[in-house]
Design brief:
Blueprint lengths: L4 E6 L10 H4 L28 H16 L10 H12 L7 E9 L15 E14 L1 E2 L19 E3 L8 E2 L19 E10 L4 H15 L5 E6 L5 E9 L12 E6 L10 E3 L3 H12 L2 H10 L2 H6 L12 H4 L4 H16 L81 H11 L6 H5 L12 H6 L3 E5 L6 H7 L1 H12 L3 E2 H8 L8 H8 L7 E2 L5 H11 L2 H21 L7 H11 L9 E8 L11 H21 L8 H27 L2 H11 L3 E12 L2 H5 L6 H11 L19 E4 L5 E4 L34 H12 L13 E11 L6 H21 L7 E7 L2 E10 L2 E7 L3 E3 L3 H8 L1 H19 L5 H6 L4 H32 L5
Parallel strand pairs: 1-10, 7-8, 12-22, 13-14, 19-20
Antiparallel strand pairs: 2-3, 3-5, 3-7, 4-6, 8-9, 9-10, 9-11, 15-16, 16-19, 17-18, 20-21, 21-22, 21-23
Helix pairs in contact: 2-5, 3-19, 10-22, 10-30, 15-16, 15-17, 18-19, 20-21
Length: 984
């Protein structure tokens, strides 16, 4: 191993090395979890695998069904299903266990410090079950206490993870950096020591080594327990690690030992488990439950005094030895940085926005392959797929912000004061000249994060929607029959209400009370079924289809309750440790995978797929400018009508505020369009927007209904294979997972990851760009946009839902080409964000691009007046929205919509009750498509492609043609000059 370790391959259950023989005894199927007195009272329940049997069986069935489904361009992730089981089991390890999902950890240093890769710093753990200690809030009684560790009551400054917080100032933990292994910055208010580690084959070795070194710093001698789980497979392999007891030599890391089964055959007694096999999964559950005493031992071994008394061990990869790795050039680096500061602060105002960057440690540093940080030992681990590797950070110089496609933006403050307007050019001339410059398109995530300043000349989401004949509306029916017929708003509000309605009844209570659930979550079921139901309760029977849906949900009711438990636990951890972007998404994914089934055993939920986004039709339409005022005024009339139709009561105050904000925004947008027409730059602005529009976007989850062999039927008249592939790539909405590419903003090239079976996969360092955006609208004239783009701001059924919530919660691979045969119809698209109010508008903007593109795609198949739904997630909150096309106009419902908190079992039940209805809606869409197949004209689809990818290709062809004409003109001029007679 790169880290300087020894791998022990074990061939029989009695052959485990002595340091891990005690912990490996838990692999025996005859071992029973310890319920000795040193285990806390919380564990006296002595949970066994039988207490999780329903979840185990559901996980096995779900993964087996998933394996039988087609990939549709990329292997399906299995993590949401098996991680829910591991999460549920890990919660029982201790009352103060901390479960972290998709956690970033610090890589260890290599054995030879001088060969340490400088750019490889972070790894990624799929799941960690850990113990944490936190700083205690400083109160008036201890504010004068010094930070000396010699005082006898120093331990009182640390509380366990389950301690109560106070309003006092919280001091940082006085621990060296080497005592921490999770990535982070700033003050350290907690220290986390993992007990059970779960990661893929590329991360498990460095993860275990980092944990071993961290434990050496803490003086913890217990072995490390890890599970290597494939992100698209179903096999889990146990790995055990320990360090040599002797202190390492200076300049080298301690010798790490890892032990695992040598035989790739499935053998639970050797630590190789299969989630799809119920017996094997039960043995895995019994093994994890048996780690409770191991957890308590590690918890009891944590001591700050031990950290102080031991020799420092600088094991972290982000703690470099400058003299060794930089060749004694530290002074030169400091001098270079100082010179850069002087040069940049003395530069012109035009470049003053650039900030000085810290020079890299070595001037010739290059990204290294992950092979240097992984080990060949994992060749014996059973895996069915190639997985993502660690996050590799580029040097700070490469992380400099470079906003792609951000040319000078028009600004009203710089416009001429003369009343005369410039001579407008034709749209074709503008598009050709813009294409010749070939600016880079925005990535969709960056574009969605831009400040939306309405329909001014800058790149905004409002402009993106307007140029695609799309508008946002509220869930408010209108009284005007003309508007209702023209927009379809009343019909769609009624359809939305039928799709999302839920009424608690005695019949539902009876069905759920008789459902088979795990003992671990039976208490939540009791709380739900003994509730009165509140204002939204009825004693009359529901309709037959609703009761059939409840029967279906009851068959997997234990899965729902486990998701509620995990969501609550993740929320508690987020309050203490903070949340990352992946927190809670596994719970949402598990609900979608289990409860969206258009047909038996069919779970067409695709995760993290690329979507083709809609082209900019305004860039092709020469008459768009002349129609713009009429279009925006019609939208303004709709917003005004919805505002007037909103009842003015205390209960509907939130809905009215949003409707009024939408009315004001529509008025401002109308003024923006008139101002642009007066300036005479309408075509230039649209062409500029079109050149920077995002081409694709990555959707976190998409629920689809496949239509078999439709793609084959549509392309049977296309003879050329290349032409057929080009058509499908630009026509299909859903694409395969997108491979990582070099970041053109830094010139960084991706590096290859060599996997045990010889396959290769690329990864590139993550990077977050904050794109600035300015507004030419004065603060006094800005519409109140805070009321918009936030689906969680107001709930239409607040009295019926949230009071129950408050009462309950107060207690606690390469990119494959699109399918050559199946066409995937979108039913619901999901965008996940961690609990962060500032991220709501970004996720809502991303969802708008997905929904508009989806209904545009359906319209090309002849499907209109039918909605596509969206799910915007902010932590445990999920809002359901939708969009549709009527009379060639697209409407996105974003206000006064229903949202659900999956920490509340009633709201989680309400949410999953929507999914069977969505499945039936998807089947209806497929029926409509089958009727349209006979009249779909592929030639027309080819001549008028709907996607931005196709438009981008057209722009490139225009640019190439323009370049050719320019070169020919230059050559002709040179030829004419050469033909002139020589003068004397």
């Amino acid at each position: 191993m790169t880290f300087g370790g020894v791998v022990h391959y074990v061939t029989q259950p009695t052959g485990w090395p002595e340091p891990v023989r005690g912990i490996t005894s838990l692999l025996s199927p005859f071992h029973c979890p310890d319920s000795s007195s040193n285990v806390s009272e919380h564990l006296s329940n002595s949970y066994t695998a039988k207490d999780f049997q329903v979840l185990i069986q559901s996980t096995a069935a779900g993964l087996s069904a998933l394996a039988e489904l087609p990939h549709y361009g990329g292997e399906r992730s299995t993590v949401p299903l098996w991680s829910q089981l591991l999460h549920a089991l890990s919660i029982t390890l201790s009352p103060d266990v901390m479960i972290l999902e998709d956690a970033s950890f610090i890589m260890p240093r290599a054995q030879n410090v001088a060969s340490q890769p400088l750019n490889l710093i972070d790894g990624r753990a799929t799941l960690l079950a850990a113990h944490a200690i936190f700083s205690a809030p400083r109160t008036h009684s201890n504010t004068s206490r010094t930070s000396s560790r010699n005082e006898e009551d120093e331990d009182e400054s640390m509380d366990s993870a389950d301690s109560d917080s106070s309003d006092g100032f919280i001091e940082s933990l006085d621990l060296p950096l080497q005592a921490h292994m999770l990535s982070g910055r700033g003050r350290r208010l907690s220290a986390v020591v993992p007990v059970l580690l779960v990661a893929d084959s590329h991360n498990i070795v460095p993860l275990m080594c980092s944990t071993l070194y961290q434990r050496r710093v803490w003086g913890i001698r217990q072995p490390v327990v890890g599970l290597c789980c494939s992100s698209t497979g179903t096999i889990a392999t146990a790995i055990f690690g320990w360090l040599d007891p002797d202190q390492s030599e200076e300049g080298h890391m301690p010798l790490a030992h890892l032990a695992l089964a040598a035989d790739i055959g499935l053998n639970s007694s050797m630590g190789v488990f299969d989630f799809t096999d119920t017996c094997s999964a039960i043995n895995l559950a019994q093994f994890i439950l048996g780690l409770r005493t191991h957890f308590e031992d590690i918890k009891g071994s944590m001591s700050i005094e031990a950290v102080d008394s031991l020799t420092p061990l600088h094991w972290r990869s982000d703690f470099p030895d400058f003299e060794t790795q930089s060749g004694g050039l530290l002074d030169e680096r400091v001098a270079s940085w100082t010179h850069q500061v002087h040069v940049e602060t003395s530069s012109s105002e035009a470049s003053s926005s650039s900030s000085p960057r810290t020079p890299p440690l070595l001037s010739d540093t290059a990204l290294v392959s992950y092979e240097t940080m992984s080990s060949p030992l994992l060749a014996t681990i059973v895996e069915d797929e190639q997985v993502h590797g660690a996050n590799i950070r580029a040097p700070q110089e490469a992380r400099a912000i470079n906003v792609k496609g951000r040319g000078p933006q028009p600004s009203s403050s710089k416009r001429s004061s003369k009343r005369t307007s410039p001579t407008p050019r034709s749209l074709s001339e503008v598009r050709t000249s813009t294409s010749s410059r070939a600016p880079s398109p925005y990535p969709n995530s960056q574009f969605a994060a831009l400040s939306d300043t309405g329909l001014d000349d800058s790149m905004t989401l409002s402009n993106w929607l307007f140029e695609r004949n799309a508008f946002t509306v509220g869930r408010i029916p209108v009284q005007s029959e003309e508007l209702a017929k023209k927009t379809g708003i009343n019909t769609m509000v009624e359809l939305y209400d039928k799709m999302t309605e839920f009424s608690w009844s005695d019949d539902i209570r009876t069905i759920l009370s008789n459902a088979k659930v795990d003992r671990f979550v039976s208490g939540i079921r009791t709380d739900l079924c003994t509730m009165n139901g509140g204002p939204n309760c009825q004693s009359t029977p529901n309709d037959v289809s609703s009761l059939e849906d409840v029967e279906f949900i009851s068959s997997k009711f234990s899965v729902l309750l486990h998701a509620v438990t995990s969501a609550r636990q993740c929320d508690d951890i987020a309050k203490l440790q903070g949340a990352n972007e992946a927190d809670r998404r596994h719970e949402w994914d598990a609900l979608l995978l289990n409860f969206f089934q258009p047909a038996p055993s069919q779970r067409d939920v695709l995760l993290e797929r690329q979507l083709n986004l809609a082209r900019n039709p305004a860039a092709d339409d020469t008459s768009f400018a002349s129609r713009a005022i009429k279009v925006i005024q019609e939208y303004r009339s709709l917003c005004l009508e919805q505002e007037e139709c909103t009842p003015l009561t205390r209960e509907t105050a939130g809905s009215w505020e949003q409707a009024a904000a939408a009315r004001d925004q529509a008025t401002q947008s109308s003024d923006d369009i008139k101002r642009r027409l007066l300036m005479g730059n309408f075509a230039e602005v649209i062409a500029d927007h079109s050149s920077k529009d995002p081409v694709t976007g990555k959707c976190d989850a998409i629920l689809v209904v496949p239509c078999s062999c439709v793609a084959t039927t549509m392309t049977q008249r296309i003879s050329s294979v290349e032409e057929k592939d080009t058509f499908l790539k630009s026509f299909m909405l859903v694409q395969g997972p997108k491979p990582d590419k070099p970041d053109t903003s830094t010139g960084e090239t991706p590096h290859q990851i060599e996997t045990p079976d010889g396959h290769r996969q690329t990864t590139t360092s993550g990077r977050s760009l904050q794109v600035p955006s300015s507004s030419r609208i004065s603060e006094s004239k800005k519409p109140n946009r805070n009321q918009l783009h936030d689906p969680f701001l107001h709930h239409p059924d607040r009295n019926q839902v949230t009071q129950t919530q408050e009462a309950i919660l107060s207690k606690d691979a390469p990119c494959d080409e699109p399918s050559q045969q199946n066409l995937l119809l979108p039913v619901l698209l999901a965008e996940y964000k961690k609990k962060d109010k500032s991220a709501i508008s970004t996720s809502m903007n991303q969802m708008k691009t997905y929904l508009v593109s989806s209904v545009t795609f359906l319209s090309k198949l002849g499907i209109v007046d039918k909605p596509v739904f969206g799910l915007i997630v902010n932590g445990t909150l999920g809002a359901v929205t939708m969009a549709w096309m009527t009379n060639k106009q697209i409407y996105v419902m974003e206000r006064n919509i229903r949202h659900y908190d999956i920490r509340d079992p009633l709201q989680a039940l309400q949410f999953v009750s929507i999914l069977p209805r969505l499945a039936r809606h998807g089947l209806d869409l497929r029926g409509l498509l089958e009727k349209q197949l006979a009249i779909i004209d592929v030639n027309e689809l080819q001549s008028k492609p709907w996607s931005k990818l196709a438009q981008r290709q057209e722009d490139k062809r225009l640019a190439a043609a323009q370049q050719t004409r320019s070169e020919e003109a230059v050559a002709q001029d040179r030829g004419s000059d050469g033909a002139e007679p020589e003068r004397i």
